[in-house]
Amino acid sequence: MLCNDCFIIIVVGQKEGYWIVARPREFDEDEVIEKAMETFWRQGYDATSVPHLEEATGISRISIYNAFGDKEGLFLRALDIYHARAVEIYENTIARGGLDDVIALFNTMAAPTPPSASVNAGCLMCNTILDVRRATPKVKKKIQSYRKMLKRAFHQALLNAREAGDIDADDTTLDQRAEYLVGVLWGTLSMIRVNGKTAAAAPMVAVAGDVVRSWQNKKDR
Description:
Blueprint: E1 6-11, E2 17-22, H1 29-43, H2 50-57, H3 61-68, H4 71-90, H5 99-109, H6 124-131, H7 137-163, H8 171-195, H9 202-214
Antiparallel strand pairs: 1-2
Helix pairs in contact: 1-2, 1-4, 3-4, 4-7, 5-9, 7-8, 8-9
């Protein structure tokens, strides 16, 4: 059975017959991944069907399969884009800052946003942990990589604060606090996901801010 993404070449000669040849792609792959990412982000992986993706991206099921393999293949590409954008925030901002930048990050996450904003759905990576019933090894690997990136960024921010004389903490304590910040971050994003609005995380963020400020040397408070 042929589809809109295929066409026939008739072969006449010693071996008559036909070949089915895939059409050149007539869509922007990056745009498709972007739209798919928004859909997965808002609805969750399990609740997003291939028909949902067809509607969101504007391309057919067969085009999705041809370009990405299957639904999970497209999801993995979406996770890659999400990770790359998060790097801009965490590795290029938080990892170059200190305690004030960490506190500012949490405050920004809990700031009220328009109902239509994607951030009211929380974090795609965090949602994946909550939504995917049976995460495959490939998906788990993406999540683990993302978590390591977060911890690395927070650890570097704490190290910067120590080098600046803002906090006194040994290496073990810095590592524990970096783990704590990752936990608070994902807890904050889970609150947003469950309630469907960023402002729902404000109480948790307020307490987290107090905890982080308590790490500062008294002269800096």
